[in-house]
Design a protein that fits this description.
Blueprint (H helix, E strand, L loop, with lengths): L1 E5 L6 H8 L4 E7 L3 E3 L4 E3 L2 H8 L4 E3 L6 H7 L1
């Protein structure tokens, strides 16, 4: 089965690990763009984006997955 994952939080990492170790294929991930964190509001990628980069899995960062552009990409 091909899987598209949509999420951004640290709590999603367990699910991603389970999918990655299964027989299913994680084909793409959608997550939020980096956000300001800490005192200097330095841009920090989401936990899901970081996980994707470490495993060379394609991902897209978007504010709103319901735009026409994102829906076309999902299709």
């Amino acid at each position: 089965m091909k899987i598209l994952y949509c999420g951004c939080g640290e709590f999603g990492i367990a699910s991603l690990n389970a999918i990655a170790s299964s027989s299913h294929r994680l084909v793409h991930i959608f997550t939020h763009p980096p956000a300001g964190a800490g005192r200097g509001r330095k841009q920090k990628p989401t936990a899901v984006a970081q996980w994707s980069k470490e495993r060379n899995i394609d991902f897209t960062q978007c504010e709103d997955i319901n735009t026409d552009e994102m829906i076309t990409m999902l299709a």
